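Subject: Sanity check before I submit

Could someone independently write out the structure tokens for this chain? I want to compare against mine line by line before I put it in a report. The sequence has 411 residues.
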Amino acid sequence: MTRPEASAAAACTIVSPNYFAFARTLAGSYLAHHSGHRFFVLIVSSTDDRDAFSGHGFEPVLLRDLPLEHMRREAMKFDILELNTNVKPTFLKFLFARFGIETLTYLDPDIFVYGALTPVFEALAGGASATLTPHITTPITDDRLPSEQDHLYNGTYNLGFVGLRRSEETAQMLDWWERRCLDLGFSEGRTGLFVDQKWMNLAPGLFARVHILRDAGCNMAYWNLHERRLTGDPERPTVNDAVPLAFFHFSGIVVDDPAVLSKHTNRFTLADRPDLGSMFAAYKAAVLANRDPAVESIPYGFDRISDGTAVTRLARRIYAKRAEQFAGDDPFDARGPFARFARRHRLVAGKAAPAKSTWREFDPDDRRVQAVHRLLKLALRVLGANRYELLMRYLAHIAVLRNQSVFLGRD
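---
Independent answer below. Compare away.
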């Protein structure tokens, strides 16, 4: 018997209201293949309206239900992606403690389940306390994205999935993981951090019964398409003519664009991969059909302070560095000490949401970028190679937004 008893088995995911359609789609797909299991969805938002998320085939859990000692402090420290991922171990601990679950599977909301998660349950029944899937199980030999270097940057294992069995070691692992996430769960590549995911590189070495699941049908996604191809009957798909597809991770999908495979890869397009075309079309249609504008319009609630001023990432990082300075105060109170501090030091600027951008979006021909390059060239000539290198090391340190707290006043 490889499946756990239904009454003791559950799965879960985490979303903010804007991702509701994905959670609804995932829950339906999981329960269709796991009769009698429970499915929980954590709603990461300031809302108290549980009823808005009820009646959709899953059991909603609100963020305020979790035993987070400083919930609003964590919500200021982290942006929406970081908060959704960093409360994961706290949520998993809560489900184990509250509902008597013996086997618990976490799945990212942009996953769809195509069959029973038998390989997961077999690993746990065989004595594993947890099971993880590596991003790749064969080398990458081209120059496309994501590369092996990208996986070094983002983490060996994809934490869009983790399977857990109630045990003493599991409890120890979740306690360790929770503390690391809440203390240092930043998306901050310069310091080797990437939310909840990067910490789990350490888990197989720290905990003896963490199992690495290499089954090709589990967590198929854009990052491993170089080694996996969908085959067989579309109603009962297999991978590489051999392995039943258990679940596909549609990370980076654009549901309203029928041509996009994932915005995170340039290795393949849907035009390159006819084996994926009908599956992607069906999944996008399912997500669109599960949309509910009333639910999706419920505010996240942690992106603005109480007067509507948008919270910037710089403000979050400085707060994270100085949280103890503002202990006992609501950081989202526009009349509170942190909001006054943020306005005084120009850490926030108006009610427009901060634009999302990366260094790849800078135009090398932009006159402002060229001016910076001229200043750096001048600094090299003035300082000489050795002192210029020291300057670059300091700039790399200060480029981590948390470290910029060093030149802000303590008042």
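---
OP: Matches mine. For the report I'm noting this point. The chain has 14 helices and 15 strands.
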